[in-house]
Amino acid sequence: MTIERTLSIIKPDAVAGNHIGEIYRRFETAGLEIIAARMMHLSQDQAESFYAVHRERPFFSALVNFMISGPVLVQVLEGDEAIRKNRDIMGATNPAEAAAGTIRHDLAETVDANAVHGSDAPETAREEIAFFFGDDELHSRR
Ligand code: IDP
């Protein structure tokens, strides 16, 4: 077993679409435990610094504007290989390329509004979790 933690965001389109429960069910069915959660409406500064790695990409301002267009739900998932498992459940970045049964295939329409974010590696997971949560806000049951 490789117990990991990963940062997940249910993006504005999926919150607006009333898909929070459906997405949480998928996490829990896969054995991922939600050990922290917060609903928030990101500021432009927060969205820009969270996605700073994409600052030079052509889609950066569209991405930031989308992420601040409505409330998001931010959570930390814990479990065996949580980073890879969450990425598998999410599906490919572009919903048109995501496998059937994944969140992005089933609940998202476009690459701009693709329902969920998930950390892609242990180091980014650590940074992204610390971006939103203090250690005293992580309620591991292990
Ligand atoms: P990921 O969310 O699957 O890890 P990244 O490459 O890290 O994908 O991109 C971050 C986010 O930026 C994506 O989830 C998507 O919302 C947006 N994005 C990525 N590529 C494009 C693009 O080509 N056009 C528009 N938005 C994009």
TrEMBL record:
UniProt keyword list: ATP-binding, Cytoplasm, Kinase, Magnesium, Metal-binding, Nucleotide metabolism, Nucleotide-binding, Phosphoprotein, Transferase
Substrates-to-products reaction catalysed: a 2'-deoxyribonucleoside 5'-diphosphate + ATP = a 2'-deoxyribonucleoside 5'-triphosphate + ADP; a ribonucleoside 5'-diphosphate + ATP = a ribonucleoside 5'-triphosphate + ADP
Broad EC category: transferase
Key word ATP-binding present: yes
Residues the entry annotates as binding ATP: K11, F59, R87, T93, R104, N114
InterPro entries reported in the protein's UniProt record: NDK-like_dom, NDK-like_dom_sf, Nucleoside_diP_kinase, Nucleoside_diP_kinase_AS
PANTHER family referenced in this protein's UniProt entry, alphabetically: NUCLEOSIDE DIPHOSPHATE KINASE (PTHR46161), NUCLEOSIDE DIPHOSPHATE KINASE DDB_G0292928-RELATED (PTHR46161:SF3)
Protein name: Nucleoside diphosphate kinase
Organism for this UniProt entry: Spiribacter salinus
